[in-house]
């Protein structure tokens, strides 16, 4: 119990933005370059927290230098709210629209099963490789790799109707997963 705490205290603590963590996660596999507007950067990483410099005020009659008083916490909060509204408004006009997708709930629906193997470690790796290949081709689709006793499976999507699942099935078969099929199961949908 003491060892994990000791290791944690030895790690340097530094604040990183999401973009910095993403760029450092390369592990020698390549580089990640992100091109985005300042508005999107502020939405993803939050507004930059620069330490405001206190303005210096000189009064000629005293010829003395003083610093201006800091703003109260409520004034700072109001400025932050206004800045967030401006950034969201600017980003919506730029390339991002904020969508209210509602709350998730489970229904009986369909998923496309792209892989079903055995219970070995190799089958787990194949399921994960299948999931990453599909996620790369369809980044907006949900991909599930799970162990359903006695086999590893990789399933794609949360479809309400069989027709939606059939469209995805044909796309997945085009990728070379010829044994893919449609599975009726509980899926997560949004209001």
Description:
The protein is of the alpha+beta class. The chain contains six helices and six strands. The chain has helices at 2-10, 18-24, 38-45, 73-94, 121-137, 162-174, and strands at residues 56-59, 64-67, 104-116, 143-148, 151-159, 181-190. Strands 4-5-3-6 form a four-stranded antiparallel sheet. It has a two-stranded antiparallel sheet with strand order 1-2. Strand 4 (143-148) and strand 5 (151-159) form a beta hairpin. It is extended, with a radius of gyration of 26 Å.
Q: Specify the helix fraction band.
A: 25-40%
Cα end-to-end separation: 44 Å
Our count of helices gives 6
Strand order within the widest beta sheet: 4-5-3-6
**Mass-distribution shape:** extended
The biggest sheet amounts to: 4 strands, antiparallel
For the secondary structure, the number of strands is 6
**What proportion of the residues form beta strands (DSSP E)?**
15-25%
Structural class per helix/strand content?
alpha+beta
Low-confidence stretches: 1-13, 62-68, 90-98
Mean pLDDT across all amino acids: 74
Radius of gyration: 26 Å
Order of helices and strands: HHHEEHEHEEHE
Concise synopsis of the structure shown:
It contains six helices and six strands. The protein is of the alpha+beta class and 191 residues long.
């Amino acid at each position: 119990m003491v060892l994990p705490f000791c290791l944690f205290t030895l790690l340097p603590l530094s604040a990183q933005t999401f973009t910095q963590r993403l760029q450092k996660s390369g592990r020698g596999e390549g580089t990640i370059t992100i091109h985005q507007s300042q508005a999107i950067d502020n939405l993803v990483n939050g507004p930059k927290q620069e330490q405001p410099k206190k303005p210096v005020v000189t009064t000629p009659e005293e010829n003395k230098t003083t610093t201006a008083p800091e703003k109260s916490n409520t004034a700072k909060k109001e400025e932050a709210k206004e800045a967030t509204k401006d950034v969201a408004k600017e980003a919506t006009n730029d390339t991002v629209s904020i969508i209210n997708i509602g709350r998730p709930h489970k229904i009986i629906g369909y998923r496309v099963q792209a892989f079903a193997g055995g219970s070995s470690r190799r089958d787990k790796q194949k399921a994960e490789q299948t999931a990453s290949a599909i996620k790369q081709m369809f980044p907006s689709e949900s991909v599930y790799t799970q162990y359903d006793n006695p086999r590893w499976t990789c399933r794609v999507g949360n479809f309400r109707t069989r027709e939606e699942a059939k469209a995805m099935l044909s796309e997945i078969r085009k990728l070379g997963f010829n044994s893919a099929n449609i599975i009726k199961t509980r899926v997560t949908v949004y209001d």
